[in-house]
Amino acid sequence: MPNRTKVLIVGGSLGGLVLAILLERAGIEYWVLEQSVLVRPIGSVIALSPLVLPLMEQLGLLEEIKRLSKPVAGLTFLRDDLSTIGRIVFNDNNRGMDHQKRYGSYDQTLPHPDLYNLLLTHIPPERVKRGKRLVNFKQTETEVTVRCSDGTFYAAEILVGADGAASTVRTSLYRQMKDVKLLPRADMEPEKYKHVCLIGVTNPLSLKRYPDLGLRFSTFKIVLNRNSPYMCWFIPIPGHRCAWLVSRALDESVVVNSGNSDSSEWGREAIEEMSKSVRHLICPAGGTVGELIDCTPREVMAKVMLEDRHFKTWFHGRTVLLGDACHRSAPFTGKGANESILDAAVLASLIYDMPSSNQQEIHMLLKKYAQTRSPITKKVVDQSGKVGALLVNRSWTGSLLRTLIFSLQNTWKYRTEVDKMHLHRYQASFLPFVPDRGAIPRLPQTPSANVIHKDWKKEQERKEQQRQSVLGTILDFPAVAL
Predict the structure, then answer these.
(1) Would you give the distance in Å from CA 78 to the centre of its chain?
(2) Distance (Å, rounded) from C-alpha 63 to C-alpha 61?
(3) pTM
(4) Which helix (H) or strand (E) holds 103?
(5) Rounded CA separation 36/133 (Å)
(6) Strand 319-321 versus strand 158-161 pairing type
(7) Angle at 140 between CA 135 and CA 146, to 5 degrees
(8) How many CB atoms lie within 10 A of CB 358?
(9) Pairing label, strands 327-328, 309-310
(10) Alpha helices in 160-228 (DSSP H)
């Protein structure tokens, strides 16, 4: 029997779009409600790890992702005189740490807008409703109803908050729970941020000036400034371009309130102000950060505020949170987007196997989702906080700890810890599993009792041919005078 559950996804985040693709493949009715009318191509970069690439292959997206991305060779940490502090290598088989051989694939890095646009092409346009800013929602025993600022209403059996770190769904859900004294004290803590980042993606650059951009593999280079609170990242991406990031750790976390949460803090003027303050910094690839800024279109630059935080409450009633809405981390470990995608895989699989959409079944489903994902993402957030603290620690103890960690790379213990971080390579349980190609097997996963056997590449080609045929018929149809 087909699953008759209807799902509302609030927010077109990467996790939200992957969930939409999964529901599309599962034949489950859904809508994506996105508050923005136009897509703004923010210049950030995504590193898709071996944790999510099997899922991308399962969905028929892997070849397209590889075409848009570069495999990652590792990370090189530098002092501000460009001397090397240490390296973390992903493709060195001599040291026994080759990600493709151990986990089935290398990490793939690509610009956020490119991945976003790719995901959108696999979602029917009519399923994405733009200009839909959530005002509030109401839950009953049988459904949840969303009211948008334009006066429209949408109803479904499940509401998914995939609307990012400043989630409106989470805010509304927590307010409802607080009113009936169900919200844990930890989730009542005010929103804060500890890191301020300026990000961008350059236009194509000279290979003579930046030879790293012409290499097959992308090596992330990071400058840790000894006499400055700033940290600079240089990330080669396809098209002889560079994604860059300059972050500053604040001395104290800043509480987000109406005085600092408007566009004045991260609007165009704020971007220009921070750009001026970091121009003099040493670029990890040589020269200055100012040279990269001058080669970056202003419309793809952004200033963002970040804080590592893991929420205890992931669901209530028929509403559930996904991705940054319930666990967010600074970009120093590169795992935030990957964990959001894995959230989507687990949630979609559970929805597919749900026998009915009554309140009890919904509660059991969402509870299992939180129990599966929350402990894992808690470790990721905690690890991100520790890595961030270590990287910005400019004292002699911080330098000593970094040296010690780099020296452990060739040890059995280091490889064992990295292996543990790559065990949860989830796939959608309702689609045929792709082979496990790594020497380190992923954790066992039970397939759905009703696996959908369909060649999605052929299905996409069939739909495109059908669309072209319909379009040709329309163009050839003689005009009728009215």
Answers:
(1) 26
(2) 6
(3) 0.90
(4) helix 99-103
(5) 8
(6) parallel
(7) 20
(8) 12
(9) antiparallel
(10) 168-179
- For residue 368, what is the enclosing H or E element? helix 359-392
Among 35-39, 91-95, 298-302, 453-457, name the one with the lowest average pLDDT: 453-457
CA distance 58 to 42: 28
Q: 289-328 burial string, b = 16+ CB within 10 Å, else e?
A: bebbbebbeeebbbbbbbbbbbbebbbbbbbbbbbbbbbb
Q: Phi and psi for 226 in degrees, rounded to 5? A: -75, -30
33-86 tens-digit pLDDT:
999 887 665 667 899 999 999 999 999 999 999 999 999 999 999 998 999 999
**What tokens were used for 469?**
């045929």
Residue 273's contacts (CB-CB under 8 Å, 6 or more residues apart) are none
Chain Cα centroid distance, residue 204: 25
Query: Phi first, then psi: what are they for 65, rounded to 5°?
Result: -65, -45
Q: Phi first, then psi: give them for residue 449, nearest 5 degrees.
A: -70, -15
Of 107, 135, 122, the C-alpha closest to 33 is 135
φ/ψ (deg, to 5) at 399: -65, -40
Residue 449 tokens read as: 């009792």
Place of tokens 């800024």: 293
Q: What's at 426, amino acid-wise?
A: Y
For the four alpha carbons of 65, 70, 73 and 77, in that order, the dihedral sign comes to: negative
Strand order in the sheet with 29-34: 128-130, 29-34, 6-10, 158-161, 319-321, 315-316
Q: How far is CA 456 from CA 58, 126, 341, 469, in A?
A: 9, 20, 19, 20
Length of the chain: 482
Phi and psi angles of residue 30, each rounded to the nearest 5 degrees, phi first: -160, 165
List the beta bridge partners of residue 136: 147
